[in-house]
TrEMBL record:
Subunit structure: Homotrimer.
Species for this entry: Catenibacillus scindens
Chloroplast is among the record's keywords: no
Protein name: 2-dehydro-3-deoxy-phosphogluconate aldolase
Main enzyme class: lyase
Assigned keywords, A-Z: Carbohydrate metabolism, Lyase, Schiff base
Length: 209
């Protein structure tokens, strides 16, 4: 199942990290992302309404592979699963969340930013990891990690924009990048979903993998 998620992410190239604040916005955002050619979305579990927003996406947009991000504990992972999350992303390596997701056969992409954390993940059999915060270390760190961990693939997130996206996607050990830049809260709050669609399209047009 992890292989399938990695395949979808690789095809997607970019994964919008989104924080809609209610069901109406989630619905409009789901449509805007699909219109913009996006294949995935990561809903950050940072607000009270995040679970219902994720449910709107998983229930109404089967073509968008939607999951939960910023999962900090097992309770949130359980909630994400009940909302139909197709994957779980964590900011750091959290063994409890990882164990829960593995038990539930729910694909999990734990955050790492050191070799030590890469090895914690490898011990759990995971070789597709979020590299966070990506801009701390950047592409130089990913190149260095590709030496000892040549069989590990990463999803850099944190500071990715249209300006540096291609420098990450050019790396063999990068499947996709996560970015809130595609659908920032500022545009969601302004109701400017057309701008979000345009941003997604522009990003896909200019990105190369
Ligand atoms: C995350 O939530 O994973 C990151 O904070 C997103 O980072 P960005 O806002 O720099 O894209």
């Amino acid at each position: 199942m992890m292989e399938r998620i990695q395949e979808i992410f690789r095809k997607a190239r970019v994964v919008p990290v989104i924080s809609p604040e209610g069901q109406a916005d989630a619905r409009k955002l789901g449509q805007a992302l699909i219109d913009g050619g996006m294949l995935c979305a990561e809903v950050t579990f940072r607000s009270q309404t995040a679970p219902e927003c994720l449910s709107v996406l998983t229930g109404n947009f089967p073509g968008l592979c939607s999951g939960a991000g910023t999962i900090l504990n097992v309770e949130q992972a359980r909630l994400a699963k009940s909302c139909g999350a197709r994957f779980v992303v964590t900011p750091a390596f959290n063994a409890r969340v990882v164990d829960y997701c593995l038990e539930q056969e729910l694909p999990v992409i734990p955050g790492i930013c050191t070799p030590y954390e890469v090895e914690l993940a490898l011990r759990k059999g995971l070789d597709f990891l979020k590299f966070f915060p990506a801009q701390v270390g950047g592409t130089a760190m990913l190149k260095a990690l590709s030496g000892p961990y040549r069989f590990v693939t990463f999803m850099p997130t944190g500071g990715i924009t249209v300006d540096n996206l291609n420098s990450y996607l050019a790396l063999e050990n990068v499947a996709a990048c996560g970015a809130s830049w595609l659908a920032p809260s500022k545009l969601i709050e302004a109701g400017d979903f057309d701008a979000i669609t345009a941003r997604c399209r522009q990003t896909l047009e200019t990105s190369e993998k």
